[in-house]
Every structure is written in structure tokens, then in C-alpha cells.
Predict the structure.
Amino acid sequence: MSAPETDIVLYTYGTPNGHKASIALEELGLKYEVQSIDIMKNIQKEDWFLKINPNGRIPALVDRTKTPDGTPQNRRIFEGASILLYLTQRYDPDHKISYPHDSDEYWEVVNFLSWQHGGIGPMQGQANHFYRFAPEKIAYGVNRYITETKRLVSVLEMQLAEQAKSNVEGGPWIAEALEIDASQWTHVKNWLDRIAARPAVQRGLCVPEGSELSAKEKEERAKAVKGWILKGQEDDHKKYNQK
């Protein structure tokens, strides 16, 4: 079955969270418009964007595709897990990257989708923060979150050893893992290689344009991000701790 004619706007930035959405859209072959949200300039905190995602984070999308009876819609979907569930349930009738609803496989994917959002995503995010962005090196924070990330990767290793097919949800985060040599987990390494070889994944990782960075460019961005993160924390502290 050919991909439906869609009218979707993706609001995103070149981060692991953003790439999950663009990869899914590319895998499904859906037509979509990209709105690059420069999080370094806090565009995601502006009033117009908060009407799309009240949490002020990327990715988010607005689906303007008409319903089968021709009714216009303007449906907002935000948070990575919600976007992936929405896209697959609405636009993947052939189950290219999903499974039939209520099948054992469907719920297994939901299990690990939830695991990624409650585990590897936030833990890797904290590892990044304490390792790269904290104003001072705190050994406890670095060790705590890198160790927890490694534990979670080990969980994925066991899962991949048991089943050959797995969704791509955790791929962008695992690929960004700090101080982790994925080759020590054979099944994870092979899984990442298989994901990286998929043309749709390669296209999704280039969204928005200019997302692919060299090692030097990543380090330069990390330095810029550090200042932005610390400034954001200071602003939030003032805003939410007023007496």
C-alpha cells in the first residue's frame, strides 16, 4: 500500500529526541514539512510553540491531514512516545515499523517504548549533563548516570539476544552514549549497525538540515550548549522558586 497523502508539520531540532520523530516519518514515507526549532534561542519557550507543546520541548507535530470524509483537522501531538504511537497507529496499516494492535508483539514494543522514555533517555540525558555540561565535575553524578546507562544498555543486550526484530526507538540515544564502547555488547552493536544502514534512518538523522555534525562540530556545539543549559537553569530557578 502506498503512503497516504499527508499534511504534517514537524517541529524539531538535531537531537536524539528530535531524530526519533523524523526517522519514523521517513520510515513510513510520509509527506511532512520541517520547522527547525532552535532550542539554543529558546524558540520552544515562545507562546506560539507552547500552544503546540505546553511542555516547551521538541519534538512536536501538527497533523493537518484531512480525515477520510474530508474534514479538516489541526491535531497537535507532542512527546516522542506519543508521536511514535500516533504515527504508527494512524499511518502504518501495513505494519512496516509496528505490529497489529493488541498483539503480543505490539505490547512488547510498548513495553520497550516506555522503557526508553523512562530509562535510557533520561538517564543518558543526565549522564550528558554531568559529564559535559555541569559547571563542576561531580564524580558521583558522572558515575551514577553513566553506570545506570550501562546497566540499561545491558538490559537491551539481553532483549536483543532473545529476539531478532526490534524497534528503532532507542537507537539515537544509544548512539549518543558517553564513554560507552558499544562493541562490548555484541547484539546492541549489531542492532545499531543495522539501524544505521537503513536509508530512512540516514535521511531522518539529517532532519532538520545541517543536523549531521563532525566530531569537532559536536564539541563546539557542546561548549555552546553548556552556557545555554546553565542560563536556562538559572532562569528556571528564579521563576519557580520565588517566595
User: Anything to note?
Assistant: Strands lie at 8-12, 32-36, 60-63, 75-78. The mean pLDDT is 87. DSSP finds nine helices and four strands in the chain. The longest strand covers residues 8-12.
